[in-house]
Write a structure and sequence with these properties.
BirA Bifunctional Protein, domain 2; two-stranded antiparallel sheet; 8 helices; about 20% strand; elongated; Plasmid recombination protein; DNA binding
Amino acid sequence: MTVQPKFTQAQPVILDEAPVVLRFAGLFPQGLGKFKMHDERRGGDLDHVDQELSRLNQVLAGGPGWQQQIRDEIAEMRQHNHQEHLRALKAKSRMKDARKLEAEGPADPWRSCSRGPLREGIITVNKDWFGGAGLLEWDPERVSAFRKTAMSFLLENFPNGQLRYASAHVDEEAYHIHFVVAVWTEKPSANRGHQILLQASENPLIKSYEHAQDLAGEAFETIGITRGERRAEARRQARAEGKPLPERRQHVPPSK
């Protein structure tokens, strides 16, 4: 029998203010299966999860076939971009290059990158803002306010289908929302034709981490959650003044 963790706290505390936590991580399409497996609590690190509560986790955006839809779009754009590139080369009478491209076959519809063309994210706040460690300690009104604010923020800032999936987890110490973003952008050129690429940085929040934190701070201010520390700004100022740089903050998972 597997013993799952229980979250207990003798003296629940509800913070009036706490910084919103918004993080992004790169994701390759082949990692979607692993993401789904962990999201559904079928694998991955589950040591910090109370699996008796996992049935209460809630899908907030995205239907059952959202992952396959992304894969289908990638396959379609792979072919589309290949044909467009061939058309553009032949239009310029670059037949040698066209024959080489035909032999190579279609390429992935994104530019080479180490992080992956998709983004997975998490949005949460210190567990004490909800009331303590775990579902039994949380204030339901605060959980509801956080969920509504978070989803409004995500839908507004990842419009036109960019937000592919979001799920709320209640089986860890802090309530949090996982999400996946796919950003398609058009890149027409005379040499390659009308290319359609996955490029996360086309979204302003992903392009600028500071901008993302600013917007998140503004969105959550209405429910008493503040912006995170301006660490990048502090590092720039310290560098300009010749002072020691503040230590870079390490990512802390919801379980901690």
